[in-house]
Structure formats: structure tokens, C-alpha cells
């Protein structure tokens, strides 16, 4: 079952939610399949992009081996988690403690 945007907007922070989400994570799953870089290509029709070969060779199924791409993904997730923690401290925590 998928949630509509209106149902997501109607979610409320309930008593005890902050305690539940403030604990350490047991697991964080990251699916990283392959890296593809793209560049503008005015000859390419509608999307006007073409892919650029990246990485060090290819897997048996033809995906580029691009360990730097995985590092980039992990670095970006780390940055986003810092932003998320900041937002929780600045926005959600005051709401919960003002009750």
C-alpha cells in the first residue's frame, strides 16, 4: 500500500516518537548498484545527455566498477544525516518540549 502525499502531510509527532527515533540505528541499508556520469549532448534528442565511461573496468554483467562512486554516495548520506540531525534539534525538539 502506498501513502498519498496528503496522508504523509497529515502525520503527527506523537508522544514517545522522539525517544524512539533518538536511539542509535541498528542498521542502515544502502543499495549502490553502479555509477554513471552524464553530460550534455545536443545531438541526443529529447534528454540531450550521453553517458561517460567511469571506473576501472566492468563487472560480468557490464556495470562499471567505480569505487569512488560508492564513496561519494556514503559521503552524501553522511552530510544529509548531519542536516537531518540539525533539523531535528532546531525544529522538532522545541515542538516536543513545548507541550
Task: Set out the fold topology.
Blueprint: H1 5-9, H2 17-21, E1 37-40, E2 49-52, H3 67-97
Antiparallel strand pairs: 1-2
Give the helices and strands as they follow along the chain: HHEEH
Taking all residues together, what is the mean pLDDT?
75
| Largest sheet descriptor | 2 strands, antiparallel
Radius of gyration: 20 Å
> What is the helical fraction, as a range of percent?
40-55%
Shape: elongated
**Low-confidence parts lasting 5 or more residues at pLDDT below 50?**
none
Strand proportion = 5-15%
Beta strands, count: 2
Count of alpha and pi helical runs: 3
* SS content category: mainly alpha
Question: Strand order of the main beta sheet, please?
Answer: 1-2
Termini separation (Å)? 33 Å
Describe the structure.
This protein is mostly helical. It has 3 helices and 2 strands, in the order ααββα. It has helices at about 5-10, 15-20, 65-95; strands at about 35-40, 50. The protein has a two-stranded antiparallel ribbon with strand order 1-2. The longest helix is centred in the C-terminal third of the chain and has 31 residues, at about 65-95. The protein is elongated and about 55 Å long. The two termini are about 35 Å apart.
Nutshell version of this structure?
The protein is mainly alpha-helical and 99 residues long.
Defining key terms:
single chain, 99 residues, mainly alpha
